[in-house]
Design brief:
Elements lengths: L4 E10 L3 E4 H5 L6 H8 L3 E4 L7 H15 L9 E5 L10 H9 L5 E5 L5 H14 L6 E8 L17 E11 L4 E9 L7 E2 L11 H5 L6 E2 L1 H22 L9 E4 L4 H11 L10 H4 L6 H9 L8 E8 L3 E8 L6
Length: 332
């Protein structure tokens, strides 16, 4: 009997219409297009505007686009997993709202929080549901409204983030195509290097936490840069070796879009040419859990059945990981 693998059988996305350019940021903080582009590679990012507009709004659009694209009845979806660190509210979770909005009445749903590595964590989770043989259609969403956590008076962090959502359909296959392997890692030593201090049970929201700016994203950029490059490269090497492959066997590497310099440094350590690396940070910025599926959406028409695709990410926690895919379908 052939081994059941979980395959991505479709991908779709949603990006807000409002474009926040470097030129607009120049009017908000002491910065410049040259300074931002040189240090991050970012030229613009999308921002979700409007009162009461949360992550589930983008996730709903992405999943509706996916269902239409794959000609899937929402009633056939058995599970929706949303990787996010910016749910609309603490509860109900964003996946519940998305499932309701798209009419997936037969699906169970939950959020998964692993920061920038969230999509890979969620993809592996969905794949295990599929490999169990019990489930046939699982949707994985990567979505974040990072503008909700961004301090637009901090020149170092406000330039980095954008808002977006992307979703993939995960289904079983027995022909060797799909998620071949996945390695997930975490280490709490990063707790003081990337965090959102207030809003949880340790520091509930109060006048003091708001006045102190503790509800904004914080990171120690230099330390995170070094850890991201090393761990993303190392875990990708490990997963390739474990599957009898080398970097030259990869047809497309899809790294988390945190910083252009990080992406280039990881590619350099792996000796993978940049023409085999998916990069769209210049147009979307860092959309956290959405970056990898957003790249898959943009590169979908360039991928063909059998291509080896390596995903790698690093995020708060620290969390990091890599997934190795054998792409399951030709461009549609």
């Amino acid at each position: 009997m052939s081994k059941i693998l979980a395959s991505i059988t479709g991908v779709a996305a949603y990006t807000p219409s409002y474009v926040l350019t470097n030129q607009e940021l120049e009017k908000m903080v002491e910065t410049s297009d040259e300074w931002i582009t040189t240090r991050t590679g970012i030229k613009e990012r999308r921002i979700l505007k409007g009162e009461g507009q949360g992550t589930s709004v983008m996730g709903t659009h992405a999943v509706k686009n996916l269902l239409e694209k794959t000609n899937t009845d929402p009633g056939d979806i058995e599970a929706i997993i949303c990787a996010t660190i910016t749910p609309d509210m603490m509860f109900p979770n964003a996946a519940n709202l998305i499932a309701y909005n798209v009419g997936a009445r037969n699906a169970f749903s939950f959020d998964l929080l692993a920061a920038c590595t969230g999509f890979i964590y969620a993809l592996e989770t969905a794949s295990n549901f599929i490999r169990s043989g019990k489930y046939k259609k699982v949707v994985v969403v990567g979505a974040d409204k990072m503008s909700s956590l961004t301090n637009y008076r901090d020149r170092n962090s406000c330039i980095l983030f954008g808002d977006a959502a992307a979703a993939v359909m995960v289904e079983p296959t027995d022909d060797g195509h799909g998620l071949v392997d996945c390695i997930l890692k975490s280490d709490g030593e990063g707790k003081d290097l990337i965090y959102l201090k207030a809003g949880g049970s340790a520091y509930p929201a109060s006048y003091e936490t708001v006045e102190m700016g503790l509800h904004y994203f914080y990171q120690d950029g230099k330390s995170v840069f070094k850890s991201a490059v090393k761990n993303m490269a190392d875990v990708t090497v490990d997963i390739l070796k474990r599957n009898g492959m080398a970097p030259e066997d990869v047809d497309l590497m899809v790294p988390h879009q945190a910083n252009r310099r990080i992406i280039e440094a990881v590619a350099s350590r792996l000796e993978i040419s940049m023409d085999k690396v998916a990069v769209n940070i210049d147009r979307y910025g860092n959309t956290t859990a959405a970056t990898i599926p957003l790249c898959l959406w943009e590169w979908e028409d360039k991928l063909k059945r059998g291509d080896v695709v390596a995903l790698t990410a690093f995020g708060a926690g620290f969390t990091w990981g890599s997934a190795l895919l054998r792409w399951a379908y030709d461009p549609k």
